[in-house]
Write a structure and sequence with these properties.
eight-stranded mixed beta sheet, 401 residues, EC 2.7.2.1, alpha/beta, cytoplasm
Length: 401
């Protein structure tokens, strides 16, 4: 019987998904894709085919349990797979820590180890692991694979991997991990020349940059946690570490209060006091909205220059992610701050959302490439399943957890 793989990309209140049929030679063909958004009062499911034609739209009362949410999702997707049987589900997991440097089949020990990493990604890790637990509950025999956002950066050179702290801290796993690795891997796979010096700007609610050379991560802006680096929708990004001490010692703020401040009340929403949504800020005439946008663009431009420095130059700048792909104004403002590097963009191509937006006179190319994390999850899951079946042909029939 033909097989299918489901890729799940879970957030705190939504799940993006894509289902693929596995063909001859393990080729993957997109069967359907979509999203499941859960809000306070309702859950909204949208399913599209490979050409982005809407196949289903379904709204129901919001469900409290992850198991019910997963059951709803599977119930809508599986009938669209035709004669293919769902063989495995791949999950985006934000933090793999020092142990998980490649995709892995999930069992109870793996799940426990991933749960222990929650303090390093409190905003993301629980949402990534909930669907895994739900599937164990409703489909205990279904194989599940964890695919890590940190894995792409696992082999960062020591210059950019290590913090300037005593060696024993790195021995305890305190190092730069980096995130958005599935997105960066997709971009790296899609480029014609792996030798190019590439800076990828993944800009969205969470934002980070990555310097890529020879298809590998050289440096990145996020580090131990997804809080570091660029300012984001609600996250502060890099700040003076002494601020944390000051807030504790002088303002008597607890660790949980500081976590709430830096993860949920900072960044665009903190600076503007209006919204964490870049679209709303761009439409606003409020001076604070402009200040928040200016600081965001200045921070991104500065760090693009830093990423270029670690490669002794840049051949290609790629914009991706929700803001990077869809906001020509933000791209324009960021690139204007890099004119001193010889960057020149074609304003009309940029406004029309063309793939290539640099001029012929530009010292390096600038492209807009929509990311596809789900396809990377599916490929990594397929590879793990192929390997597992080679090692044990009966593995598909065993309970992984």
């Amino acid at each position: 019987m033909p097989q299918a793989i489901l890729a799940l990309n879970a957030g705190s209140s939504s799940i993006k998904f894509a289902a693929y049929r596995v063909g001859t030679g393990s080729e993957l063909t997109l069967a359907c894709k979509g999203s499941l958004d859960r809000h306070a009062r309702e859950a909204k499911l949208i399913v599209k085919d490979a050409a982005s034609t809407v196949l289903q739209e379904h709204t129901s009362e919001s469900v409290d349990s992850s198991s019910a949410l997963t059951t709803l999702l599977l119930g809508r997707i599986e009938p669209l797979l035709g004669d293919a049987e769902l063989a495995a589900v791949g999950h985006r997991v934000v933090h793999g820590g020092p142990t998980f440097s490649a995709p892995v089949l999930v069992d109870s020990a793996v799940l426990q180890a991933l749960d222990a990493l929650t303090p390093l990604a409190p905003l993301h890790q629980p949402g990534c692991l909930d669907p895994i637990r739900s599937l164990i509950s409703v489909r205990p025999r279904l194989l599940q694979v964890a695919c890590f956002d940190t894995a792409f950066h696992h082999d960062l050179p020591p210059t950019y991997r290590r913090f300037p702290l005593p060696a024993e801290f790195e021995a305890d796993g305190i190092r730069r991990y980096g995130f958005h690795g599935l997105s960066f891997e997709y971009i790296a796979r899609s480029l014609d020349s792996v030798e190019a010096r590439v800076v990828v700007a993944h800009l969205g609610s969470g934002s980070s940059l990555c310097a890529i050379r020879n298809g590998k991560s050289v440096n990145t802006t996020m580090s131990l946690t997804p809080l570091d680096g660029l300012m984001m929708a609600t996250r502060s990004g890099a700040i003076d570490p002494g601020l944390v001490l000051y807030l504790q010692q002088t303002k008597n703020m607890s660790a949980s209060e500081i976590e709430e401040l830096l993860y949920h009340r900072s960044g665009l929403i903190g600076l503007s006091g209006i919204s964490s949504d870049m679209r709303i800020l761009l439409a606003s005439d409020d001076l604070k909205a402009k200040e928040a946008i200016d600081q965001f663009c200045a921070c991104v431009a500065e760090q693009i220059a830093a990423m270029a420095t670690c490669m002794s130059g840049v051949d290609l700048l790629v914009f991706t992610g929700g803001i990077g792909e869809n906001s020509p104004e933000i791209r324009k403002q960021i690139c204007a701050r890099l004119n001193w590097l010889g960057l020149r963009i074609d304003d009309e191509a940029n406004m029309r959302g063309h793939n290539s937006i640099s001029t012929r006179e530009s010292r390096f190319a600038v492209r807009v490439i929509p990311t596809d994390e789900e396809s990377v999850i599916a490929m990594q899951t397929r590879d793990i399943i192929d390997r597992a079946n080679l090692e044990d042909p009966n593995r598909i029939a065993k309970n992984p957890a």
